[in-house]
Amino acid sequence: MKNLLNQIKNISFQEPGGVDEIKQTLANWQERKLIDSGQCEMIMSILKFSRLQVRDVMINRSQMVTLVQDSKVNVIKSLNNGYKHSRYPVWKSEAKDEIVGLMLVKDILNQDDSNIEISKLMRKPVFVPESQRLDTLLRSFKLSHVHMAIVVDEFGGVSGLITIEDVLEQIVGDIEDEHDANNDREPISVIEGRTYIRGLLPIKEFNNHFSVKLDDGYFDTISGIIARQFGKIPINGEKIIYGGFEFTVIQADQRRINLMEVKPVS
Predict the structure, then answer these.
(1) Which of 1, 2, 94, 168 has its CB surrounded by the most CB atoms within 10 Å?
(2) pTM
(3) Full domain range(s) for residue 158
């Protein structure tokens, strides 16, 4: 494999036909069974990786799940029941003018006093510019052992965040863990009296659970049918009433709705 990659280094993406030449080379290797389809896809991802910038893969500011520094520990415990994130950026105030910290869930798990302000437990945030290259950021993550950075624009304003998982996914594809909102475990859950549903919940299962008959003629999942009602992929916090229910988007990315809260309306 090392020799094959060395051959590709001599082919430039910038040269006319460079990408096509690489694709053809990889196709030939596949035919000769020197690599399989998965290795071929990863090689292409690695070659494109150095051309990507933080702005290309970051989570936009509107989709960030955040805290305010004067919040109490019980707030993040309650919030984490729905999101299951391991880290949360912390704003200086409700005005959302400045990120002043990073709250790690593990830092509060052993806290008995739920009235402690998270400002006393949060860690110093790391900031990176939108224009930073992903390969540079990955090296920085590796050396500093930091897994999340706040992304700022040219004026210093917060434009989003990026995690080491977001970076690695550009090479290996989507990485899912046991807390990802789109995995197939516990598609419907009730937490503190609130009902949450996964975006990939089949519409037929939704209908069976709630004893309703939502139209499933065009889509198979509840994410698809709700996105259709919005007319777009909504952002976190957006709400819509459909089929006798109020759907609140809890977690969504650029491709789909991952988690929603649902409650019946009159």
Answers:
(1) 168
(2) 0.58
(3) 56-172
